[in-house]
Amino acid sequence: MQPLLDIRELHVAFSTDQGEVPVVRGVDLHIGRSEIVGLVGESGSGKSITCMAAMGLLDDNALLRGELRWAGQLLQSQDDRVMSRLRGSELAMIFQDPMSALNPVKTIGKQLYEAIRLNSPQRLGGSELKQRAISLLKDVGVPAPDHRIKAYPHQLSGGLNQRVVIAMMLAGNPHLLIADEPTTALDVTVQAQIIDLLMELREQRGMSIVLVTHDLGVVAETCDRVVVMYCGKVVESGPVESVLQSPRHPYTAGLLASLPRGENGDDELTPIPGVVPEPHQLGKGCAFAPRCPNASGCCLSGMPASQLSETGQLFSCFSPQPVKPRQPHRAPLNE
Ligand SMILES: Nc1ncnc2c1ncn2[C@@H]1O[C@H](COP(=O)(O)OP(=O)(O)OP(=O)(O)O)[C@@H](O)[C@H]1O
Ligand code: SF4
Ligand SMILES: [Mg+2]
Fold first, then answer.
1. Number of alpha carbons in the 13 Å side-chain half-sphere of residue 145
2. In this structure, what CATH number is given to the domain that contains residue 305?
3. How far, in Å, is the centroid of ligand 1 from the Cα of 24?
């Protein structure tokens, strides 16, 4: 079946004073209908830039190559008017900090009315707008919505503001929601509530979700597939159950080993040694080589090709992790 979002061989470089800096280097990403896909990787791996490219929201100094398709339609060939219609009514994105998406000097109601108007084919009257705004706030679990539409963002908690942002994004009934670290700025209990809300919305609306996160525990609980990025490349992808149970790429294995485990999350952690190289430091070999326990000479001189395992995992590595025997029930990654 044709994927909703189909990204092939995406390359993004930024033109800077230091020259051209490649930050996304040949990414393939396919999102099917009603699918929820986790996008993970350390800071700077190109997760947000990949998502921004799909939304047509890259900075002016970005140079893009590759193919981005929405329901078969080539996105790069669309003009600004078509792209802004697609954003909202077809695909929408929420960011880490809700305050960056809200206007501090406008009430929640006014901002919701604008989002509804933008995505509504016919002109709605004042009372219809208000009813629709209240109903969207109810959908995202904002208590006393008829009261809250009169509030300004600073009068609401971070968690409530993020719910409001999600309500604004739902105004156009998008088929795909890209949630870029939607909970990082929130405290732990609120984080869990926002993730639960996204899952409920996916259930009710059949929406697809790309969940960008650093939390593999959340990926294990919520996603169908996971895509692991490192230095602008997808190093491993596949069904969550297979990838997390028996990662084949040493980087995925390293991310899993650095997770807190045990009842209280107090077991010894094994962090990945070293740091992520800067984009301008990358050579022609595997970018993970300086940090990889399996690295050998060939890893420095060339790029490994992608291989597909029997469990549906696609990974690129000269010396992959051995396959682990299947466990009947996977224990939760963290509590
Ligand atoms: N406008 C820009 N000009 C130059 N470099 C940029 C620009 N925007 C982003 N970058 C660089 O692109 C790289 C990838 O950034 P990106 O934001 O996609 O990382 P990320 O995987 O989302 O990381 P994080 O987990 O920290 O959000 C980073 O090295 C970043 O500094
Ligand atoms: S290709 Fe080599 S350096 Fe890269 S992850 Fe595999 S073993 Fe490690
Ligand atoms: Mg990011």
1. 18
2. 3.40.50.300
3. 9
Q: How many domains, in total, are found in the chain?
A: 1
Please report, as a single letter, which amino acid is at residue 314: L
Task: Name the residue of 294, 300, 303, 321 whose CB sits within 8 Å of the most ligand 2 atoms, as the mutation to test its pocket.
Answer: 294
Q: Would the CB of 306 count as within 6 Å of ligand 2?
A: no
Decide whether any atom of ligand 1 lies within 6 Å of the 47 Cβ.
yes
Q: What is the DSSP string of 31-61?
A: E-TT-EEEEE-STTSSHHHHHHHHHT---TT
The CA distance from 185 to 172, in Å, is: 25
In a domain, 133, yes or no: no
Using alpha carbons, select from 55, 84, 57 the residue that is nearest to residue 70: 55
How far, in Å, from the CA of 250 to the mean position of ligand 2?
7
322 belongs to a structural domain? no
Domain of 218 in residue numbering reads as 5-82+208-316
Whether 149 maps to a domain, the answer reads no
What pTM value is reported for the model? 0.93
Smallest CA-to-CA distance from 167 within 190, 196, 126, 198 is with 198
Neighbours of ion ligand 3 (CB under 5 A): 48
Element (H, E) at 250: helix 250-257
Closest-lying ligand 2 atom to the alpha carbon of residue 319: 7
Is residue 119 domain-resident? no
pLDDT tens, position by position, 159-209: 999 999 999 999 999 999 999 999 888 888 888 989 999 999 999 999 999
Are the beta carbons of 266 and 283 closer than 8 angstroms? no
Q: What's the pLDDT tens digit per position in 282-299?
A: 989 999 999 999 999 999
